[in-house]
C-alpha cells in the first residue's frame, strides 16, 4: 500500500503526481510503510489498514476526544489506546501518551482507578455457543433518583460481552418481562439460556411462563456458586464506574447518560476477546466522532474532507 520506491505504484486513491525532489525527500519513510498524501501523513500498520499519523500538535485533542468525549467512557490507558487504533489513528508513542493522559484526568483521579483490563471478568472456559445464545441478567440499585429512575436493569451476552440496559423506576417482574421482550427477544432473537440470581423479580410465575413460551432455558445462580452469573456482576461494576466518571457529583443526570455509557462500553477493546463487542456483533469497527474531527482515512476519502479536492471544486 505504500509507494516503496520511485516508479512503483501508489495505493489507489492517493495523489501520485510527485516530482524528483518529493521522492528523494520521502523515500526513507517509504520503507516503513509511510506515505504522504497532502496534507496528511499515513501509515500501513500491522493490521494491513491505513492509519492517519497524528502530529504532536493535536495528540492531546485526540486523546481528549477518545477518553472523555461522547463514547469515551473514561476507560484506562490500554483500552483507550486500542480504541484510537480502531479509529485508524497512529503515532509511535500512542500507549505511553494514553497512560500519561489518563493519569492526569481529573475525573478519573477523583473517582479512583480508571476502568482497565484489570476489571475484566476472570478467564473461564468458553462454552460452545454463538453470539446472543446465553444472556446474564441483573438489577443494579439503588441509585440517587434521576428523572424518577432509581434502578438499572442490565443484561450481558456471554459471548460478545454486548450489554443492554435501561433505567427503571422499580425492580419488579413487569419491568423484567417487558425488558426481555423489547430489548432482547425482539431485537436479538430467542436465546438458548438466560441466567439470573435468585431475586423475586426473576424467580416467579410470570418469568417462568414467558421463558417457557419462547423455549428459553432458565438457570439460577445460587449463593454457593455465584460464578454462574459473574459476567452480569462484573459489568454492573463497570457501568456504575463509567457513570460515576461521566455524571456530576450529585448523580442527578445518570439516567440521561446511561446510553452514552453503554456506547462507550460497546466500542471499547476487550482483552479476552481481542476486539470490542461492537466489532464482534457487526464485524466492523464503530465509526466515532473523533474520526470525523481528526480526519481518519475513510473520512477523508469518503466524506469529502480532502482539502486538495475541496479547493479544486471551489476553483471551478
From TrEMBL:
PROSITE patterns the UniProt entry points to: INTEGRASE
Single biological process term from Gene Ontology: DNA integration
Domain Integrase catalytic: 121-285
InterPro entries per UniProt: Gypsy_RT_Integrase-like, Integrase_cat-core, Integrase_H2C2, RNaseH-like_sf, RNaseH_sf
Molecular function via GO: nucleic acid binding
PANTHER family, A to Z: ENDONUCLEASE-RELATED
Protein known as: Pol
Organism from which the protein derives: Mucuna pruriens (Velvet bean)
Amino acid at each position: 500500500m505504500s509507494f516503496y520506491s520511485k516508479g512503483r505504484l501508489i495505493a489507489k486513491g492517493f495523489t501520485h503526481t510527485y516530482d524528483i525532489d518529493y521522492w528523494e525527500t520521502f523515500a526513507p519513510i517509504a520503507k516503513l510503510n509511510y506515505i504522504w498524501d497532502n496534507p496528511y501523513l499515513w501509515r500501513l500498520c500491522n493490521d494491513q489498514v491505513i492509519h492517519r499519523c497524528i502530529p504532536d500538535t493535536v495528540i492531546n485533542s485526540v486523546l481528549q476526544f477518545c477518553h472523555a468525549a461522547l463514547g469515551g467512557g473514561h476507560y484506562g490507558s490500554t483500552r483507550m489506546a486500542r480504541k484510537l487504533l480502531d479509529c485508524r489513528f497512529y503515532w509511535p508513542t500512542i500507549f505511553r501518551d494514553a497512560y500519561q493522559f489518563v493519569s492526569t484526568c481529573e475525573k478519573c483521579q477523583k473517582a479512583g482507578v480508571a476502568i482497565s483490563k484489570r476489571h475484566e471478568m476472570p478467564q473461564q472456559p468458553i462454552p460452545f455457543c454463538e453470539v446472543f445464545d446465553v444472556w446474564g441478567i441483573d438489577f443494579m440499585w439503588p441509585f440517587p433518583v434521576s428523572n424518577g429512575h432509581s434502578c438499572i436493569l442490565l443484561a450481558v451476552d456471554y459471548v460478545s460481552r454486548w450489554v443492554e440496559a435501561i433505567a427503571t423506576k422499580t425492580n419488579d417482574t413487569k419491568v423484567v418481562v417487558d425488558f426481555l421482550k423489547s430489548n432482547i427477544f425482539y431485537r436479538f432473537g430467542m436465546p438458548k439460556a438466560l441466567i439470573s440470581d435468585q431475586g423475586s423479580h426473576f424467580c416467579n410465575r410470570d418469568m417462568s411462563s414467558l421463558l417457557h413460551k419462547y423455549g428459553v432455558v432458565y438457570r439460577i445462580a445460587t449463593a454457593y456458586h455465584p460464578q454462574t452469573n459473574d459476567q452480569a456482576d462484573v459489568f454492573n461494576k463497570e457501568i456504575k464506574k463509567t457513570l460515576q466518571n461521566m455524571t456530576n457529583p450529585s448523580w442527578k443526570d445518570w439516567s440521561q447518560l446511561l446510553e452514552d455509557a453503554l456506547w462507550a462500553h460497546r466500542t471499547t477493546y476487550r482483552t479476552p476477546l481481542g476486539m470490542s463487542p461492537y466489532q464482534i456483533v457487526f464485524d466492523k469497527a464503530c465509526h466515532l466522532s473523533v474520526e470525523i474531527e481528526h480526519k481518519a482515512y475513510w473520512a477523508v476519502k469518503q466524506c469529502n474532507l480532502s482539502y486538495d479536492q475541496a479547493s479544486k471544486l471551489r476553483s471551478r
